[in-house]
From TrEMBL:
This is Riboflavin synthase. GO terms for biological process: riboflavin biosynthetic process. One of its GO terms (molecular function) is riboflavin synthase activity. It catalyses: 2 6,7-dimethyl-8-(1-D-ribityl)lumazine + H(+) = 5-amino-6-(D-ribitylamino)uracil + riboflavin. CDD domains: Riboflavin_synthase_like (cd00402). Pathway: Cofactor biosynthesis; riboflavin biosynthesis; riboflavin from 2-hydroxy-3-oxobutyl phosphate and 5-amino-6-(D-ribitylamino)uracil: step 2/2. It is an enzyme of class 2 (transferase). Pfam families: Lum_binding. Keywords: Repeat, Riboflavin biosynthesis, Transferase. InterPro entries: ATP_synth_asu-like_sf (IPR023366), Lumazine-bd (IPR001783), Lumazine-bd_dom (IPR026017), Riboflavin_synthase-like_b-brl (IPR017938). Its EC number is 2.5.1.9. Catalyzes the dismutation of two molecules of 6,7-dimethyl-8-ribityllumazine, resulting in the formation of riboflavin and 5-amino-6-(D-ribitylamino)uracil. Residues 1-96, 97-193 form the Lumazine-binding domain.
Length: 217
């Protein structure tokens, strides 16, 4: 489990393809002070397992499904990546619930500066867009962000100077592909309701005040 608060920008040092899979070595001395084999580290929002490490680098294996479903396949030597260690028990929870299980990718379609903030419009599939809610949460390349607007197929985020400086989002622009993880709570609520709806889809006799109270809402 992660919170979407990026701890360090790492640098890809090497990428080795082994068939459909990839072995990646990332330099990130800041977060390796307490690393152990098998630890989880989110790389651009993708939860990966540390398979080896030194005092300055760590290695991860990318499975074929991860390569196909995320933007990690676009990385090359020298690329910067967002890094976050798994959430520690008792630590501050500064973002939102982020699992590191990316739902898909989006494409930045516009970037504009307003006062001290930078606004990005990101296009996603309809399957992802249905979870985008005004003032809701989304993880973009692993960064916990607030949704400031939605329209047909796109959502808008606003980035403050600190986030631009400390994460890779500041270097992104129109045409770039980003990893998207939608709000986990929204997905759970959808599944919870979907499996309890009538077969004909008529929710009028199911979604009532008493039903919601009975199920903890």
């Amino acid at each position: 489990m992660f919170t979407g608060i990026i701890e360090e920008k790492g640098t890809v040092k090497s990428i080795r393809e082994t068939g459909e899979a990839i072995v990646m070595v990332i330099e990130a001395p800041g977060i390796l002070t307490d690393v152990k084999l098998g630890d989880s580290i989110a790389v651009n929002g993708v939860c990966l397992t540390v398979t080896s490490f030194t005092d300055r680098t760590f290695s991860v294996d990318l499975m074929p499904e991860t390569v196909r479903a995320t933007s990690l396949k676009l990385l090359k030597n020298g690329s910067y990546v967002n890094l976050e260690r798994a959430m520690a028990a008792g630590g501050r929870f500064g973002g939102h619930f982020v699992t590191g299980h990316v739902d898909g990718t989006g494409t930045i379609v516009s970037k504009r500066k307003e006062a001290n903030a930078v606004y990005y419009d990101i296009q996603v599939s309809g399957e992802l867009h249905k979870y985008m809610m005004l003032k809701g949460s989304v993880a973009v390349d692993g960064t916990s962000l607030t949704i400031f607007g939605t329209s047909d197929g796109t959502f808008t985020i606003s980035i403050i100077p600190h986030t631009i400086e400390e994460t890779i989002i500041g270097s992104r622009g129109p045409g770039d592909i980003v990893n998207i993880e939608t709000d986990m709570l929204a997905k759970y609520i959808e599944q919870f309701l979907f499996h309890r709806l009538p077969a004909d889809g008529d929710v009028s006799d199911k979604l009532t005040e008493s039903f919601l109270k009975e199920h903890g809402f």
